[in-house]
Amino acid sequence: MPIRRRRPLTAVLAGLILSGTALPGWARTLDYVGTYVWSGSEASFGGFSGIEISPDGTGFHALTDRAQLYWGSIERDSQGLIRAMNSAGRAHLKDSKGVPLPPGYTGDSEGLAIGDDGAIWISFEGLDRVALYDNPDATARALQPPPRLPGMRLNSGLEALAIRDGTLYAVPERTGDENQPFPILTFRDNTWGEAGEIRRDPRWLAVGGDFGPDGWFYLLERDFRGILGFASRIRRMRLTEAGPRDEEILLTTRPLQYDNLEGISVWHDGQGIRLTMISDDNFLLVQRTELVEYRLRD
Q: Cα(204)–Cα(174) distance, rounded to whole angstroms?
């Protein structure tokens, strides 16, 4: 067998740099941590579209798309893998008059963000709006409705919701055209504004968002491929006064690799940035509620 000489590593690197080829895996690594399948016996269990994990990774709030909010504790082993989700409570969200929201047009809750003060922000599609709750059992505070955006319709409203320094950021699920960027809406002092646009790639829809402890904005996207199932993608970027900067794709999954991932929470586990995602099983027996976790090491 002939011996093939290998090009020196320095020569390979020099060639890549001169050609402008990116080296995404050399500056950081994204490690798969684990998947936990969560189940519950209540009729309201399922359809999870949003999740918030406590800074130490031991607590959670999880939002269904039928106006139900669960919360509780997370048991982890010595490696940080989820071993149990212990539900401590559940609340049926109310409207501004104190009436429990029915599933459907007025109760299609999608985005979840929790402020440093503990206030709970939830976005709804159908009747597009954002509601603020002092606690899960509280009556919703009436807020200024968001502006109507191209592409927003009955099942495509504000899905990605995140909060930073008291300002709420919201990204709609889709835009008017596959090549039209996602607008970034902001909400502060009961006033809506904009913070630039995020490039949209055809087929990919925005379904979840969060700010990490590193200050970056993480966007979870989904692509439904019919009988082939769901594919997911995570992008991160810096949101500056001049708009998004330094955007990079961290993860793109294969169809059927995971279920319908819709919610994302970003926190630090002591070793790196932990990305926790939750799936929407659409209340179907053929789907399941998964919590999927990755760790990003810069």
A: 8
